[in-house]
Amino acid sequence: MGIVFRQSIKTTIVTFVGALLGALTIFFSTYIFKDDLQKLGFTRTFINIAAIVQFVILGGVGPLIQTYTQRYPEKGDLRRKTLITVCSMVPLLALFLFYIPYHFLKTEITHFYQQEDQPYITRYYYLMVPLVLAWAFMTLYESYLVAMHKVAAASLMREVILRLLNLIVLFLFYLKLFSFDTFVLLSIGIYFIPSLILLVVSVRTKGFGYSFQFNSFTKADYKELAHFAWYHLLMGVPFFVMGFSDSLMLAMLDKSGMASVPIYTNAVFITTIMTIPYRAMSVAAFPTLNQAYIENDSAKVNDLFHRSGINILIVAVAMFLIIGGNLPNAVAILPAGKGYEAITPLVLILMIGRLIDMGTGLNNELISISKLYKFNFRISVLLVVLMLSLNWLWIPKYSFYGAAWASTIALAIFNIAKVIFLWVKMKLHPFTNRSWLVLLAGAVTAIAAFGIPHFRNIWADIFVRTTVVIIIYTALLIYFKPSPDLSNYLGSIRKNKRLF
């Protein structure tokens, strides 16, 4: 768990740097497009659609390469390189099959959107294809590097390099060096850069390569691989639908069309910052958890599951406190009179769902690598139907507030169902007898942090409020000692005078 914890810290730092770049990108784009929310809404809607499509055309080979690579030795076993070859061929074939209906249904797809938004969809319609291709291979190589325990390197490309490139393109557009058409083209083209860098890093990793010795797998092997990939695709699609359906349906169903998307996606971005440590910890823990399950080491699986659960709960509460306390400051730096004041209640609604999601630990990861993985798909389908239905009913009436509540309710039901399922089937739950101490520490910290009067200077207020949260919360965690990993890590910092 020490390795997992250190990898989590490193990946979290990388991801926070990416979040800072993402925040700068959103901040500048909000001001650059403050008088044209429709263009800003289009770019974000286009990216969201591409995110879903690239996941679908991958066909589940991301989880496949991430899970099965470790089963084949890097030397003397062609199956690893053959697996990489097969996984690389799947998105190419799937993209070709996707393009056929995408081309012939252009008119029908365009008419899903409000009439004033349709010219944007029509003009840039076919740019979806190269964007999806670049994104799919970026995800594929990321999955391989995660399996090789190079989590930080994989995160660096998506979280830092890609966002830095986005920021550069945005800045050049701000200087009026090119038109909006060129801006869209460059915003798509930059996705090829991290994909190529990840390929180079993968090539330099032991065991990476391509082999066309397809007979190194038996028919039974291919059936097993296809079965695993197919079910993980089916399980993943609901996750992506839940992650993007609210903003996509907002563009279609809200009276303001794509103009309402920037307000909601800004709230989603702020909420996403809350999940950065969770994503880093789950990605870092996955290879070790997967290896322990492959070796049938139930004691290690249980230990990893419980210790990850308490660590994730700690950071979930911390992020909720820091973000919640600084929401007025976040809204104050955005353009006034453009509807961004709605971000405060939107973020609070969305963070409730994320707190429940993070607080229930690595339920999804454990179920996905076990023989019970089909459950994730079944419960996900039911929840997607619920979420789509709630969005369909509530967005026309309540705009982005309806989308936010639909997302939170779906996440709450989804995670509670997984907790119950794991307890019934495996007698496991993500909580320890000290989990309540984390909530107590959070409650005491909240009373102190939210009781501080607001300073007139925004940056001074952010500094003081965040510092108070960190000091009080950390002090209480040191006193309560809910997590052995945290105690050991803080002790190591005091002894060695360094983070790692």
Give me a quick take on this structure.
The chain has 500 residues and is an all-alpha fold. It has one domain (2-496).
Description:
The protein has helices at residues 2-32, 37-58, 61-68, 79-104, 106-110, 118-123, 128-147, 151-174, 180-189, 192-203, 219-253, 261-274, 276-294, 298-332, 343-359, 363-369, 374-398, 400-426, 435-450, 458-480, 484-496. With 500 residues, it is mainly α. The mean pLDDT is 83. The radius of gyration is 23 Å and the shape is globular. It contains 21 helices and no strands. The chain has one domain. Keywords: Cell membrane, Membrane, Transmembrane, Transmembrane helix. It is a multi-pass membrane protein.
Secondary-structure blueprint:
Layout: H1 2-32, H2 37-58, H3 61-68, H4 79-104, H5 106-110, H6 118-123, H7 128-147, H8 151-174, H9 180-189, H10 192-203, H11 219-253, H12 261-274, H13 276-294, H14 298-332, H15 343-359, H16 363-369, H17 374-398, H18 400-426, H19 435-450, H20 458-480, H21 484-496
Helix coverage percent: over 70%
Count of the separate structural domains: 1
SS element count, helices = 21
Radius of gyration: 23 Å
Q: What order do the helices and strands follow?
A: HHHHHHHHHHHHHHHHHHHHH
> Sheet bearing the most strands, described?
none
Q: For the residues shown, what is the average pLDDT?
A: 83
Structural class comes to mainly alpha
Relative strand content: under 5%
Termini separation: 14 Å
How is the quaternary structure best described? single chain
Give the overall shape. Answer: globular
How many extended strands?
0
Low-confidence stretches: none
Subcellular location: Cell membrane
Transmembrane segments: 12-33, 45-65, 86-104, 124-148, 160-177, 183-204, 225-244, 264-289, 310-327, 339-356, 377-395, 401-424, 436-456, 462-480
Keywords: Cell membrane, Membrane, Transmembrane, Transmembrane helix
InterPro entries: Poly_Biosynth_Transport
